[in-house]
């Protein structure tokens, strides 16, 4: 079964390029395009894609609002949203992640990383581009979150603290397993436990929590 994707970007040349790249993948199919956030939300609600790929700055309804409408807190049966943007728009990325985005990429990320992000989102995971994780989330951590970070329902174990940091730095499960000399299934188990203790839904929110509590700092 192909991963069904909707692409929304107000720049036609960018949108066309993304569609071409995704459709060239053997197991990804773009089923809808939109030039603004309002149309993107309408398409997503009607077509129920596996993944929505949204630019942040769009007319009518921007990518943050569109993400919140489809994946935000309180949304029943939320859709997977990946935000794609430029580094110049980094102040919006943090807000998009808090709105429920399952990952983010820069527009120069390349075909391989774009495909990985779509696959990760479709599988219920999240991809934070390692090359920009510290710069983006660390910058916002220094400026301080809008609200104090929620305390975990249970104290984190030493191993969970280690995995928390690696997730925040953009490591994949396989990379974490290699780095900490543990099995892949153990990594997945710890990440599930982290989400439960922190009351978050995915790896992106784990990473945000790590930066907000100064577990990881920029640089």
Element-level helix/strand string: EHEHEHEHEHEHHHHH
Uncertain segments:
none
Strand order of the largest sheet: 2-1-3-4-5-6
CATH topological fold name of the largest domain: Rossmann fold
User: How far is the N terminus from the C terminus?
Assistant: 41 Å
Number of strands: 6
**What global shape is seen?**
globular
Q: What is the percent of helical residues?
A: 40-55%
Taking the sheet with the most strands, its summary is: 6 strands, parallel
Q: Count of DSSP helices?
A: 10
Radius of gyration from the CA trace?
17 Å
Instruction: Look at the helices and sheets and give the structural class.
Output: alpha/beta
- Which whole number gives the mean pLDDT? 85
Total number of domains? 2
Strand content: 5-15%
CATH architecture of the largest domain: 3-Layer(aba) Sandwich
CATH H level of the largest domain: which superfamily?
A: Response regulator
Task: Report the top-level CATH class of the largest domain.
Answer: Alpha Beta
InterPro entries: CheY-like_superfamily, NreC/VraR/RcsB-like_REC, Sig_transdc_resp-reg_C-effctor, Sig_transdc_resp-reg_receiver, Tscrpt_reg_LuxR_C, WalR-like
Protein name: DNA-binding response regulator
GO biological process, one term: phosphorelay signal transduction system
GO molecular function: DNA binding
